[in-house]
Amino acid sequence: MAGNGKLRSDVKPGLEVDIVLKQDQRTGKTTRGIVKDLLTNSPQHPHGIKVRLQDGQVGRIKHIISGGTGG
């Protein structure tokens, strides 16, 4: 279920994703992790759904890697 992370319906806790942290927005550097919480409430976002990873880092999804253990 790879996707670009712009639709909230595509994102759920447990997904492995690449996100861009706030401090990396200018460079576009991505950070990989597992989604813990969804922070964007709207159904979609042009820059990607904002999430908190299990390690506490927050950023917008650039790419969904895999469905994780939950799906």
UniProtKB/TrEMBL annotation:
A Pfam family found in this protein is DUF2196
Q: Which InterPro entries match?
A: DUF2196
Q: Which domain of life is it from?
A: Bacteria
Q: Which NCBIfam families match?
A: YwbE family protein
What is the name listed in the Swiss-Prot or TrEMBL entry for this protein? YwbE family protein
Report the source organism: Paenibacillus thalictri
The lineage, from the top, is: Bacteria, Bacillati, Bacillota, Bacilli, Bacillales
